[in-house]
Every structure is written in structure tokens, then in C-alpha cells.
Automatic annotation (TrEMBL):
GO terms for molecular function: flavin adenine dinucleotide binding; UDP-galactopyranose mutase activity. Its EC number is 5.4.99.9. Keywords: FAD, Flavoprotein, Isomerase. Its cofactor is FAD. Belongs to the UDP-galactopyranose/dTDP-fucopyranose mutase family. This is UDP-galactopyranose mutase. InterPro entries: UDP-GALP_mutase (IPR004379), UDP-GalPyranose_mutase_C (IPR015899). Residues 149-360 form the UDP-galactopyranose mutase C-terminal domain. The lineage of its organism: Bacteria, Bacillati, Actinomycetota, Actinomycetes, Micrococcales. One of its GO terms (cellular component) is cytosol. It holds the Pfam family NAD_binding_8.
């Protein structure tokens, strides 16, 4: 008999399981997929030796010292720091939009103040407060030239919706930096797990008190850890979709998903950088990942004459698709409130993680909120 059932083996579920096992509790983790780790899972592509993040590129970064100390129990990190470029109208630009981008784009050598006043003037076409949609708001924030080049169509491709039909609410500020800093993240700590994501994840689950059952769905009545047999019998931490738990009684929450097209190419280096964005309307994908560049320190382990790339396409998710990003419409928010009330009344079931709370969570946020749930609620009650 277990002291705790964890549904889902992403970073939220694994953090709870690891803490409970460490405290001497017996934990069962069930996972619907045939591997642990949730969306952070990765594999070494066998012909090239290159680590491929199966569910999209995962970059670890945090400013939370507690989380950083915790994750360093299981893995060390490389000194990788994330940078992204953008191919627009046949030319390559630096991202996030910064003084280099502005000077490339306007073919100029503006100082920070000159660039600031140029963008301010271009942004005067619309007013942020009265902007009626994403298109007007974007122009009000960064001006028409930069908005149309780097944001309008990129965002439209992410949402499969034209910029005029997207709500202004999806953006509060479009980042423009008036210096040459092109580091993507501003966090104190950043890096990639030295031995890969899967080694990290496996170390978290590697404890005699943890039993992992793969290919096991909480809603499958024929397995011993189903919702029907577990709830009320054993404390449950549930990290699957909250609407699914309640059989969609308050409506289906909407998500965007991604499709990935992976290709092995017979070239040493395809694009010279890990991530290239494609913000133009006539290119169907949003970006291309080239995985060998995430680990330059592994160069001797990588095929020298081949590379792995992944094109990323974005669309709305059906019930059978992987849910990746909450759409968060007004209907979604109303349904979520009802689900939260039902969740609060569910005896000894704790809803957590990205799917269980209908919130996009980076890895460090999922780990941080699991550590809080453990410390504040579970440690003294199970
Ligand atoms: P998940 O990782 O989604 O894990 C939930 C698990 O529950 C899954 O394994 C699922 O199979 C399982 N499950 C669901 N239902 C059931 C059921 N009925 N029975 C059994 N098991 C079930 N984070 C970063 O920090 N940096 C990044 O660059 C980054 N990039 C991302 C890119 C994409 C495309 C996505 C989707 C996420 C990205 N993330 C990134 C976030 C990260 O992948 C995790 O989503 C985050 O760590 C939250 O983890 P989680 O445990 O809440 O959820
Ligand atoms: Na303005």
C-alpha cells in the first residue's frame, strides 16, 4: 500500500514524489505515456547522437534560489545561455528586438536615445489605452514597422488568427531593448542539464520508495490505481487536465498545441544557431530548432556530417491532441472558476501543475509550486 498516489510524471509530479519518498513515504506514480518526465522528456537521436527534446525545445532558467538548489541535487548544468535570431524578408535579425535589431532594420547607427525617440514617434499612430485589438495595440507599443516585421504575423501564426481579430489582452508589453543585450532570459540561473533531461528526470524518480507505472491512465478502470479505486482511499496529487478529471462537466478548456516535423539533414550545420524564428506570413512554421547547438560541448559525440532540425507549427488543440498552451478565453476563465470550486471539494485530492491548474508553467515554476505544496500542505498531512 502506498502513502501517496501521484498522477503524472512531469516535473510537478516528480518533485512531489521525490520529496515524499525522501521523507520516508511510499509513493506510486502513474503515467499515461510510456516514459516519465512529461513534456521535458528528451532522447538521443540514434544515428546522430544528438539530444532531441521530443515535445519542443526546453530551456532551463530561474531566479529562484530554492528551486536552483533543489534541481542541482539531480543534475549539473552547462553554461548555455539562450539566444534567438529571426529571418524576416530574407534577412537575419537579432532577437529579442534590441538596438542591434533596430539598427539592422532601419540601416542606421542610432544611439539608445535616438532609437527610443524614433520608436516613440512611430508608436504614436495608435494609443495603447484605446487600441481595439492586438494589431492596434502592437503598433501603439512598438510602431508599425517593427510590429509588422517581427510580431504581427508571428503571433497570427501562433494563434491561427489574423492580428485584427486577436484580442489586445494577449499582449501587455512587446519587449524592445534599447541596448545590445540579446540574452533571451534575464534570470539569475540558466543552463541545460549536462547529461540531458532524461538523466535528470530519472535521478528524481530513482528512490526505493518510488514505484513508477508507465502506460497507466488514471481514468482506466481496469488498472488498480484508477480514479474510482484511489480517491478517498489514498491522498492523490493529480497533474492531468482538470476538466478531464470532472468529465468535462463545466465545459472543455481550450488549448493550443504544436506539431513538430523532425528531419535529419546531411549537413554539418544547418543554421548556425539553436533557434531561428520565421515571423513572415508566407512561411507556414513559426521556428526551426537545430538541437546540436544546445550542446556545443558535446561536439565530439555528435555526427560531424549530419544534423537534426525540427520545424514547429502551431494550432488549436482537439481533445486528443497534446494540450500545450492555455488559450484562456472568457469562457475558459468562467469554466476554470467552477472547476476550482469542485476541485476544492474533492476529498484529499491536490490539483497541480500545468494541466491541473490550466496555467502555462515553466519547469522552474512547476518545481517551485510543487515544493510549496509539499512544504505547506502535504508534508504534515500524509
Ligand atoms: P507536464 O510536463 O505536462 O506533465 C504532466 C504529465 O501528466 C504528463 O506526462 C502526462 O502524460 C501525465 N498525465 C496526464 N493525464 C494523465 C492521466 N489521466 N493518467 C496518467 N498520467 C497523466 N519550461 C521551461 O522551463 N522552459 C522551456 O523552454 C519550456 N518549453 C516548453 C515548450 C512546450 C511546447 C511546452 C508544452 C512546455 C514547455 N515548458 C518549458 C514547460 C514544461 O514542459 C512543463 O510543462 C512544466 O515543467 C510543467 O510540468 P508539469 O508536471 O506540470 O506538466
Ligand atoms: Na502609442
Amino acid at each position: 500500500m502506498s502513502d501517496l498516489l501521484v498522477v503524472g510524471s512531469g516535473f510537478f509530479g516528480l518533485t512531489i514524489a521525490e520529496r515524499a519518498a525522501h521523507a520516508g513515504k511510499k509513493v506510486t506514480v502513474i503515467e499515461r505515456r510510456s516514459h516519465i518526465g512529461g513534456n521535458a522528456y528528451s532522447e538521443i537521436e540514434p544515428t546522430t547522437g544528438i539530444e532531441v527534446h521530443q515535445y519542443g525545445a526546453h530551456l532551463f532558467h530561474t531566479s529562484n534560489k530554492t528551486v536552483w538548489d533543489y534541481v542541482n541535487r539531480f543534475t549539473t548544468f552547462t553554461n548555455y545561455s539562450h539566444r534567438v535570431y529571426s529571418t524576416h524578408a530574407g534577412r537575419v535579425f537579432a532577437l529579442p528586438v534590441n538596438l542591434h535589431t533596430i539598427n539592422q532594420f532601419f540601416d542606421a547607427a542610432y544611439t539608445p536615445d535616438e532609437a527610443r525617440s524614433l520608436i516613440k514617434e512611430q508608436a504614436g499612430e495608435y494609443d495603447v489605452d484605446s487600441a481595439r485589438n492586438f494589431y492596434e495595440k502592437g503598433i501603439a507599443l512598438v510602431g508599425r514597422p517593427l510590429f509588422e516585421a517581427f510580431f504581427a504575423h508571428y503571433t497570427a501564426k501562433q494563434w491561427q488568427t489574423s492580428p485584427e481579430k486577436l484580442s489586445g489582452d494577449i499582449v501587455s508589453r512587446l519587449p524592445v531593448r534599447y541596448n545590445y543585450d540579446n540574452r533571451y532570459f534575464n534570470d539569475t540561473y540558466e543552463g541545460l542539464p549536462t547529461d540531458g533531461y532524461t538523466a535528470w528526470i530519472e535521478r528524481m524518480a530513482d528512490h526505493p520508495n518510488i514505484e513508477v507505472r508507465l502506460d497507466t491512465d488514471f481514468f482506466d478502470l481496469t488498472q488498480p490505481w484508477s480514479k474510482e479505486s484511489a480517491v478517498g482511499q489514498v491522498p492523490v496529487v493529480y497533474t492531468g487536465p482538470v476538466d478531464r478529471y470532472f468529465d468535462y462537466s463545466e465545459g472543455e478548456l481550450s488549448w493550443r498545441t504544436l506539431d513538430f516535423e523532425q528531419e535529419i539533414l546531411p549537413v554539418r550545420d544547418f543554421q548556425g544557431t539553436p533557434v531561428m524564428n520565421y515571423p513572415d506570413a508566407d512561411v507556414p512554421y513559426t521556428r526551426i530548432h537545430e538541437f546540436k547547438h544546445f550542446h556545443p560541448e558535446r561536439a565530439t559525440a555528435h555526427a560531424s556530417d549530419q544534423t537534426v532540425i525540427m520545424r514547429e507549427f502551431s494550432r488549436f488543440a482537439d481533445r486528443d491532441d497534446e494540450p500545450y498552451y492555455p488559450v484562456n478565453t472568457a469562457d475558459d476563465r468562467a469554466a476554470l472558476l467552477s472547476y476550482r470550486q469542485r476541485a476544492a471539494n474533492e476529498p484529499n485530492v491536490y490539483f497541480g501543475g500545468r494541466l491541473g491548474t490550466y496555467k502555462y508553467l515553466d519547469m522552474h515554476m512547476a518545481i517551485g509550486s510543487a515544493l510549496s505544496l509539499w512544504r505547506n500542505e502535504l508534508a504534515d498531512s500524509i
